[in-house]
Fold:
Amino acid sequence: MELWDIFDRVRQPQNRTAVRGSTIDKKDYHLIIHAWVRRKSDGRLLVSKRVDHIFWGGYWQPTGGSVKAGEPSRSAALRELREELGIKADDAQSTLLFSYRFVPPEPENPSFFLDCWLFDFDDISQKLEIIPLLQKEEVADAKWCTLEEILALWKSGKFMPFETTWQPYFEVLQKCLQKPGTVFALKAWGAAELKTTKTTKTTTPELDAALLLSHVLGCTKNDLLLRASDKVSAEETLAFAKLLYRRADGMPVAYLTGRKDFWKSTFEVSPAVLIPKPDTELLVELAAKLVEARAHTLTAHSPDTQSETLNIADICTGSGCIGISVFQEALDLHINPVNIKFVLSDISEDALGIAQRNTRAILGEDAENISFVQGDLLEPFLAGAKPPPHFDIILSNPPYVPSSVTDGLLQDGRSEPRFALDGGKDGLDIIRRLIPQVWQALNKNGILLIETGEYNAAQTAELLKDSGFIEIKTFNDLGGQPRVTQAKKP
Structure:
């Protein structure tokens, strides 16, 4: 597979959404070609000044045109150079620098793809042999410029429209010209694509592109810096492009890579579970402090000595990120794992399967000290239990987002499971059911740590107070929003 086939394949109708590409031609998509000609002797680029409204208007521009139906991108670039500037570039070294999606500022205008090609010549005479007809009607002048000179022309309004929507184009062009076809250039292109997409609201396009590319290349994000000049194969570029366009459609990076860093570990995730969020690490931090407070009563490595057992439950565990992270903290405190009984519970069989795999992958042999229960909240522990279970600490990150807010999150392309987000009209439907169950399942002086968030932390505290809990506190996350509520059973 040739490098220039990559983006053509990605853009096929079955690989695009209806909102991407042009609505002008239903049979095909709208594709524009930019063919830059570079002189190897000094690295200068050729620009030509248009006087008639050939493309967008009169400005300095290399060459541009629309691809004909069924015409490969590179073939179109060669044709444009031959027909518009009289340059035969068939034997020149060619590189597809990047494929850029231009999104017009006017919502009614369709977006289009722009393939940016580079044709390197060993040498071209200072004065080009311009086809006389074109010279008379379309091309007033042609000259060689450095990229810095081209940027100056652009900013002064003499080369292509000076619009903010073109800023990413020149940013990625500058980077790709330095190292075409490399890890460096591909990452730069990916970030520019995410910056200009209409559907994605990502605030971290550079990070998203880096994470996706490192996933495809099988390395860490930091390794991309060391491999910046490495050439990327056509297969790797195609895989990256496919992931990037799915990200542009709103699919979270974690679901595309199948993993997410949280606390001190990397967790497997899928659309069956919520993606672990940094804000939730506050719950782990608070739980770790509770475990540390009990550490002196738990024998670390003395099997001959009677010691207490700390019973902890993680309800609505999802990926297991909370419970597994707290268990790790207990191990770091040199607490003997046999003195901790940990239960992870979730109503979803798929979620529980992911939690089990994460437990084995992260904890290794110590995973045998964690058990799993499928069921609705604490009902599996309370139904017919004689006597009922007694937990010292119960952790939970239940669905607590109001339905109307959930609708907005899902429409924004969050793509996470609704049942793990939606807490009903006021976000408290699950919490109202959970609190009385926690009261039954906790030991005396047992602690509940529950994530609620800015939507209903105050109401959750009131529900806990009405149920008899004491020492109720709500802790804010790093963003200053109420995030975790702690309560004690007297």
Notes: Residues 325 and 357 are 14 Å apart (CA to CA).
